[in-house]
Specification:
With about 300 residues, this protein is mainly β. It has two helices and 20 strands. It is about 15% helix and about 45% strand. The strands form five sheets. Strands 10, 11, 13, 14 and 15 form a five-stranded antiparallel β-sheet that branches. Strands 16, 17, 18, 19 and 20 form a five-stranded antiparallel β-sheet that branches. The longest helix has 20 residues. The protein is elongated and about 120 Å long.
């Protein structure tokens, strides 16, 4: 009985000791179409003993040559989809620690692909795949010779297809949109240009005065002065111009523009101050006014 207990205790000690001596490096990251390379230190002088014992990718052993100073893990050959979460387990000997040669691949680079698009009833919809990070999507439209941000929508991130929708105000003709994300380093990743031919009634100006301009329907607009400075922009039907001073302006809306002029008729007086008027000053003023009247005749 004592021998059996001794053997059980010995077996338990061996298992526990093995667990204590066993070392591993665990890495979890999003696959971004980049392979991983690991330093595998040599522990003898003849190249027969190396640091790494086994490598597991998503709980499956990765078969590779472990008798080399650098081990390449080629995720592209493992049917792993871009945006999918990957777990790498590296089991190594206790007297060494393997390191990653290219740790920058774990940074949040932005990758995505537009796989479908549609523009219908003033709604732009698009689908993506290969989203490496759950970063916001910035949507732009091409208006007045510039790309303008019109909306932001949170990206889902991860493997699989993801669908998004935003409201837009397309005009008659070709409407162009594009989408981008900003990565860890502040770099922008753009989609291709999404172009749509839109058929609708042309918009027009219904009424205008010194306070407002009214369009037939909602439109994206911009008001520019003679120097090309943009003073106002937005998307609406009634445009408030009451804050504009006298001068010439351009109203750009949809895919055309119109020049307009503002002339205020209101007179604003400052503070009235009295001052003494002598008989001589009054007579001179009267002569001046009479002369002006005669010249007009």
């Amino acid at each position: 009985m004592k021998n059996i207990l001794f053997l059980i205790s010995l077996s338990f000690f061996i298992v526990v000791s093995t667990m204590i001596k066993a070392q591993s490096v665990d890495i979890k990251f999003v696959y971004q179409a980049r392979n991983v390379f690991i330093n595998n230190p040599m522990l003898d002088d003849v190249g027969k003993i190396y640091c790494i014992n086994k490598i597991f990718i998503n709980e499956k052993e990765y078969i590779c040559d472990k008798y080399t100073s650098v081990i390449g893990i080629y995720l592209e050959n493992l049917n792993i989809e871009v945006g999918e979460m990957v777990e790498i387990q590296i089991f190594n000997k206790e007297e060494c620690t393997p390191t990653i040669v290219n740790p920058e691949i774990f940074e949040n680079f932005c990758l995505f692909e537009i796989i479908s698009k549609d523009l219908k009833n003033n709604v732009l919809s698009f689908s993506t795949r290969f989203e490496t990070v759950a970063s916001p999507f910035y949507i732009q439209e091409y208006r007045f010779d510039n790309w303008r941000n019109i909306d932001t929508i949170q990206g889902v991130g991860g493997a699989g297809n993801h669908n998004y929708k935003i409201s837009v105000t397309p005009f008659l003709g070709i409407n162009n949109y594009r989408i981008y994300q900003i990565d860890f380093y502040g770099q922008k990743t753009y989609s291709e240009v999404l172009s749509f031919s839109n058929v609708k009634r042309p918009n027009s100006i219904v009424s205008k005065n010194n306070n407002q301009i009214v369009l037939k329907e909602d439109a994206t607009y911009s008001i520019v002065d003679n120097l090309g400075n943009e003073l106002q922009n937005g998307t609406q039907k009634t445009i408030d111009i009451s804050n504009l001073s006298d001068g010439n302006y351009f109203l750009c809306f949809e895919n055309h523009y119109a020049e307009f002029t503002i002339k205020k008729t209101k007179i604003k007086f400052g503070e009235i101050t009295e001052f003494p008027v002598t008989k001589e000053v009054f007579n001179e003023k009267l002569k001046h006014d009479m002369l002006k009247l005669q010249n007009k005749r």
